[in-house]
Design brief:
Distance between the termini of chain B: 26 Å
Order of helices and strands of chain B: HHHHHHHHHH
Number of strands of chain A: 14
Distance between the termini of chain A: 44 Å
CATH topology of the largest domain in chain A: Rossmann fold
Strand content of chain A: 25-35%
CATH class of the largest domain in chain A: Alpha Beta
Shape of chain A: globular
Helix content of chain A: 25-40%
Structural class of chain A: alpha/beta
Structural class of chain B: mainly alpha
Radius of gyration of chain A: 23 Å
Order of helices and strands of chain A: HEEEHEEHEHHHEHEHEEHEEEHEH
Oligomer: heterodimer
Strand content of chain B: under 5%
Number of helices of chain B: 10
Largest sheet of chain B: none
Largest interface: A-B, 33 and 29 residues
Bound molecules: adenosine-5'-diphosphate, magnesium ion
Shape of chain B: globular
Helix content of chain B: over 70%
Strand order of the largest sheet of chain A: 6-7-8-3-9-10
């Protein structure tokens, strides 16, 4: 065994396989509420990872645990191999967190805020990078404005810049698009995608399925503190999660072609909703078959599944297996 | 143990100093004026009636006490208000996310509190000497006690700021602990003039040593030997440092809130 130590190649390959984030058996309880229940999964280096779950699922709690903002009751968390508690210096140096709530220090300007934050991470003379961040996030004009005088969207962008002052390997964004207008959302995603291309690991929490789908390579779904699924985007789509087809006829609907019967989630009067498998289905084909079954179609729409619907279905699928 | 990251520590110190410097009218000027009002009123009423130390006028006697009172109240206010404010507003995360050690946090917060205490103290002194002559027997003793006093009270403010969840809890801490202990520590009188029971009780008040030693620096006279006061202060500062660093290490009411 001792000979292993003489093979640097072995050590090297182990090093390259360190996960960006590793969670194992993480549990956290608030009084009677089990906010996190034995959550385990890994996020690989360079992934664009989505953490998806409805309000109250435990997403922010998980992020706080990663950031060392709270102590878990049990389990281990590490960032690039550094335990968030025992090796908190390394762990926090590698991690940038954009908190869900907009918070700021009202005493300072945008630039001062970013300079202080750089210093906290032990970085002096960070002005080149700060200027680039300000530029990328369209904040240059506001650099010397007091934080109090910024709009909500601008404050959110400053939070992103603050999370990036120390060029962390791993960037976690906790529902960054909540209450953000479309334009800002687009420019924010452009920037985050660029960071991802440049090699940063990105973790995004959201309760919008589309958002996670659009951006993320892999998606973890949590609900009530438990990990329900962890899949690539493709696998998730193949499960038929995410979209439904609403068809309205000019008459009451009484028959559905046999091949679609088990996809019906709602059938009321002249309306029917069908689960859509977006990776394999053709909407036109479905409509053709419905017409062939002598349905007179009046109106068609593709509906996004609410996360709640997805959970209901996933949970019932799991129960069905047992 | 990790070595201290001085860049991080100095940055936080700088931020905490900037915080009070930007609103200096409220954080420096206002307390200086309050102290001067005390001086004018008490000095005027009691001048000539009381002679605490031989050869020292009452107004002159009053100045070190008032100075120290102002210094320590502001040191306390600096740490406690900074913490409670950033806790209530949520901006405390900006300090909790970086890799600060407990000691780095402690030194930065205390440093800023000491600097504010000294700024206010110098302000009061510079204006007071227009009004009455105050000797300075030993400037080092004056400085050492001013620093130890604001250090200790900055630490107490840190504890209060961590413990409190609302602003009025800080106010309660001030009204029920800081103010009584200050007023009963011989700011306005020598504790020797008190009845025996109150005299002995005053000697158990840590604030007494802070002011008595400080006063020695001015007049070369004090109730208790200055070395005793120094020892008491060093003990207080050591205990408070240990408590604060432990609380910061555990993230008491900061993490997991
Ligand atoms: N400090 C706290 N004390 C008590 N309960 C909390 C606390 N923080 C979060 N919770 C509860 O834990 C659950 C998970 O919350 P959170 O992680 O914020 O969910 P999410 O971010 O997914 O919306 C919620 O039911 C929430 O009410
Ligand atoms: Mg949340």
């Amino acid at each position: 065994m001792a000979r292993l130590f003489f093979f640097p190649v072995v050590t090297g390959s182990i090093l390259t396989e360190i996960n960006a984030i590793s969670l194992s058996g993480v549990s956290k309880r608030y009084g009677d509420l089990q906010a996190l229940n034995n959550v385990s999964f890994d996020i690989r280096k360079g992934e664009f990872f989505g953490l998806l779950g409805p309000n109250g699922a435990g997403k922010s709690t998980l992020i706080s645990a990663l950031a060392g903002l709270l102590k878990v009751d049990s389990g281990q968390l590490s960032i690039l191999g550094a335990d968030v508690e025992k090796e908190y210096r390394q762990a926090r140096q590698h991690l940038g967190v954009v908190p869900q709530e907009i918070v700021m220090d009202p005493f300072f300007t945008v630039r001062e805020t970013l300079q202080f934050q750089s210093g906290y991470f032990g970085i002096r003379n960070n002005d080149d990078w700060i200027n680039e961040l300000l530029d990328q996030l369209n904040l240059s004009e506001k650099a010397d404005t007091n934080m109090r005088k910024l709009s909500g969207g601008m404050k959110r962008r400053v939070l992103i810049a603050q999370a990036l002052v120390h060029k962390p390997q791993v960037l976690v964004l906790d529902e960054p698009t909540a209450g953000v207008d479309v334009e800002l959302r687009q420019s924010m995603w452009r920037f985050v995608r660029r960071l991802h291309r440049e090699g940063h690991t990105i973790v995004l929490t959201t309760h919008y399925l589309e958002e996670a789908e659009e951006l993320c390579d892999r998606i973890a779904i949590i609900n009530k503190g438990e990990l329900l699924a962890l899949e690539t985007k493709q696998d998730l789509l193949a499960r038929g999660l995410g979209s439904k087809l609403l068809v309205r006829a000019t008459h009451d609907i009484d028959t559905i072609p046999r091949e679609y019967q088990d996809r019906v989630t709602r059938l009321e009067g002249n309306e029917v909703e069908l689960i859509l498998h977006r990776d394999s289905d053709s909407v036109m084909e479905i409509l053709d078959r419905l017409r062939a079954a002598s349905m007179k179609i009046d109106f068609v729409s593709v509906l996004s599944d609410s996360l709640e619907d997805v959970f209901v279905r996933m949970t019932s699928e799991q129960e069905g297996v047992q | 143990m990790n070595a201290i990251n001085w860049v991080a520590c100095r940055t936080l110190l700088g931020k905490e100093v900037t915080r009070w410097r930007k609103v200096w009218m409220q954080t420096v000027l206002a307390p200086v004026i309050t102290a001067l009002l005390y001086l004018l009123v008490f000095g005027h009423v009691l001048e000539g009636r009381v002679e605490v130390f031989p050869g020292v006028s009452y107004t002159a006697f009053l100045i070190p006490g008032l100075l120290m009172m102002t210094v320590i109240q502001n040191a306390f206010a600096n740490t406690s208000s900074s913490l409670i404010q950033s806790k209530v507003m949520g901006s405390i995360v900006f300090v909790l996310l970086p890799p600060f050690s407990a000691l780095e946090l402690f030194l930065a917060y205390i440093g800023a509190a000491v600097l504010r205490g000294l700024a206010v103290g110098v302000g009061v002194f510079l204006l007071a000497i227009f009004y009455v002559q105050v000797p300075i027997e030993n400037i080092f003793v004056v400085l050492i006690f001013a620093i130890l006093g604001s250090y200790a009270m900055g630490a107490l403010g840190l504890i209060a700021g961590m413990w409190a969840e609302k602003f009025d809890q800080i106010a309660a801490f001030q009204s029920f602990l800081i103010v009584p202990l200050t007023f009963l520590s011989g700011v306005f009188y020598s504790i020797k003039s008190l009845p025996e029971f109150w005299y002995q009780l005053s000697k158990a008040n840590p604030f007494f040593y802070m002011i008595d030693g400080f006063r020695y620096g001015f007049f070369g006279q004090s109730d208790q030997p200055v070395m005793l006061s120094l020892a008491a202060m060093l003990l207080a500062v050591t205990i408070l440092t240990i408590i604060c660093v432990r609380m910061l290490q555990s993230g008491y009411k900061l993490r997991d809130a």
